[in-house]
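Interim report, section 4.2 (structural modelling).
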Amino acid sequence: MPPMKWWGWGEEGISFTHEDKPDLGPFIERVLGLRVGPPAAAPPRLEDLTVPGPELPASLREALERAAGPEAVSLEVLDRVVHGRGKSLRDLIRQRRGDFGRLPDAVVRPADERAVAAVVRAAVEADAVVIPFGGGSSISGSLEAAGDERRPVISLDVTRLDRVLAIDEASRLARVQAGVFGPSLERQLGDRGWTLGHFPDSFNHSTLGGWIATRSSGMQSDRYGDICDLTRGLRVIGPSGTLVVRPVPAASNGPSIREMVLGSEGRLGVVTEATLQVRRIPEQRLILGYLFPEFAAGIEAVREIAESECSVSVTRVSDAPETRFSFATRRDPTLVDRLKSRALRVFLERRMSFDTGRMALSFIGFEGSRAHVAAQRRAVGSIVRRRGGLCIGAGPGELYDQKKFDTPYIRDFLLDRGVAGDVSETATVWSRLMPLYDAVTAAGHEAFAAAGVRGYLMCHLSHSYHAGACLYFTFALRPPPGGDLLAPYELVKSAIQQAFVDNDATLSHHHAVGTEHAPWLEQDITAPGVAMLRGLFEGADPGRNMNPGKIV
Amino acid sequence: MPPMKWWGWGEEGISFTHEDKPDLGPFIERVLGLRVGPPAAAPPRLEDLTVPGPELPASLREALERAAGPEAVSLEVLDRVVHGRGKSLRDLIRQRRGDFGRLPDAVVRPADERAVAAVVRAAVEADAVVIPFGGGSSISGSLEAAGDERRPVISLDVTRLDRVLAIDEASRLARVQAGVFGPSLERQLGDRGWTLGHFPDSFNHSTLGGWIATRSSGMQSDRYGDICDLTRGLRVIGPSGTLVVRPVPAASNGPSIREMVLGSEGRLGVVTEATLQVRRIPEQRLILGYLFPEFAAGIEAVREIAESECSVSVTRVSDAPETRFSFATRRDPTLVDRLKSRALRVFLERRMSFDTGRMALSFIGFEGSRAHVAAQRRAVGSIVRRRGGLCIGAGPGELYDQKKFDTPYIRDFLLDRGVAGDVSETATVWSRLMPLYDAVTAAGHEAFAAAGVRGYLMCHLSHSYHAGACLYFTFALRPPPGGDLLAPYELVKSAIQQAFVDNDATLSHHHAVGTEHAPWLEQDITAPGVAMLRGLFEGADPGRNMNPGKIV
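Predicted structure of the assembly:
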């Protein structure tokens, strides 16, 4: 895998465009007052910017080269810039400005676990800082060294550890190296008939180790579980040696070490390998589209599905603003035709009593044998009908499934045109979802007003559980021409995060803490929880060499 | 709830007997060489034994009385003896001998969370040790103060905190105080149509807080999950204040604080409240009995069920020795008749090619709507048949369900007759279950020989997961008349535990670490894991006031 663009999301040469989406330009003009044309400026060129040089002691450089081989140690400008931080909106804005922060002094790419251990040992002996790096897709500030870090900083890129080592077919477990990217992992598993079933939006550009380090969640989590559920065994290289978490299905051996590594963002060491639950590729995969008269009805239906005896793989319901956005981004003429058809509109408005401006688009996924899928589909259908919804077939679901990994490119498309677009997501219990939704929506719009920007805020429910679900908010804001982007963005982002913790929700459902969500940590887990984390990190890493300053 | 017997399991006046089980006496004589008669001696009388007096500074006593009320502070002999330790076999043997160890200096029973906090504050200010106490059913040594503890020791009995505070019906969550015993919890929930579905063998004599502190697992865990899955929110009183874990369905807010409290055995503080996933009481509950030609075939069937699209509530398969024991303890004449019937024996041996000495008894449970139960039962039936098994109906399952909470009484019955009986359980992945079983069986029998005792060892699989299951070993040993019980018991117990960690399994699946399993902790979680736990406990409790010496 080539690294992502140093200034934006994804691969060079790939970008989001409005040109093949006839309704998107008018939509953006309507909600943000922006007439969408070509980018205001070309992407920045690295050679036009000043990149601070590395400061790596010669002795440490030699030690790293001995540890991982000379070819594995890079001080190249582009390597250091790409490895300097992740892809949060704040990161993208600063990269474009040439504000690179505290860049790593070296990027090291060990070939195997033994070399990872030798690199960590050499770095700790030299009192250097080690920041593990996988796909670099963090949007929470988990990858950037502290601005005032005076020790040498090593970005430890694990992406050469990219193989499925073994599949235990009887136990349905795969031993996998942590640096593997999503597509390669699914290809290696799929060649033998298996799947992990973990498909976060970052899938193409994120690694197993990153998913573990951030407690990631994938689209089909209703069926497969989150990465926390999928991960059974672990190998982690830390300052005091190799932590091994045995791959057992459950254990009562004290507080769960496994769950301490999950979400640890490199603070306990470098994840080199995991033993993961895998499943046979199902006979059938199906995502169906549904329409509900309003967001709350869709949420009620999903809540009921989660309690019922049916099993589904995906549950997703968009609020009215997101539903309108989804329809504005459609390319599929069949769907356009269908939705535009006078017959459907009449049916929705007259027969179903829908207000088409308030309706909520939903996707529900099914996997398994054909008989199983058919049975689940029938059971879900009757719950949906009780909530006033209707099935609109497999077309919209297929479309959603195809384009979901492209979503992160939209932020660059907007930034090119002076608009900040970003996401914030959380989770709470079923009874608090609508109050949370109302509170966050109000907080977001108040923040737009306070910042003096045009803004748009939309939301979907995804990832259902017994007790509740994730609410995923997407927002865009456009300052007056010439106005600063970062300050109003931070005002809005902070208002939304604050509304989460003020309304019985967590600071993040699957995007981790890093530095960007750290201001809300104590409000989320209380002061004794923070003290526990501090003690844990201190116990594993008394010298504060492993990605210090993240989480707490 | 009255406290359990100070010298044994369960309620005064209730005990296990062989008299209503016509085949049990002959069975015990055959396998242990013991002719079962009345107890060798009457239960010990506390007044015949010397109980060390409490050493509680007057100032601390006053502070505790101010904190919880004078009536809540007890220095009574029986209170202190009952609260001095749990019910491990080592505990029972020592209690009967009048070897009480380091008894608590006071037992404090606060009425509410505010009083718990005041007690913890007073104790920490006086540098006393606080050991939280629920049902006192620990069999891993989690409740006894260190023999050389010189600070005052307070047993903090939380059983007055025994109410279901609220049920959030939309979210299917109940807020419950941690001191509630199993039967009271299910009664309070059941009155409103709900169930937690958590039924460990200790159910009648253990509390919610104890389940959480030890990562407990209940019989229907295949459906409801373990206590780790059921527990969403937590309130924990520690030295630095109140830790609150928000009841959210999932979170990405750093290493899971929730999972640190689960299994913490009081080292992080006193659990006062939890928010638990509950479910509607199902329309139908059914446990069916099955017979397999041998243990391995039963395991294969359960492994296949865990991968299939059917959902079950209980999976349990006994090995041949446990199957023989089960048949020897039966009271039910219908079953006796049936199993003794020439027709069944001929059928099993001729038509099914069973060796009835090797066959494996299995229970599989189903819950839900009648239609759902019927469908699952059919699907399971066809898997069972493919593995050469057959269904023997609901009778044996009902019997098992009725008597399962009586099992712990057997240890006292055996101790009364000079026999040590105990359990050790673990978990590993499917592919390693049979090698583990063989290794533990060999290690147990070698240890019987080395200790010079007659011994019996039996096993069942229970608690199935995607990746593996629990193996639960029960063993009994009889030294020559007049020989010591404790030394050979410890030899056998140690051999079994060592075989667990030597064969890719964990030191315990659901009985915690305490002091009795602590020797195997580092072999299980490796040295860096131990360092993480030490750091965690140090962070939460720098003065080592909260149940010090447990786990690490």
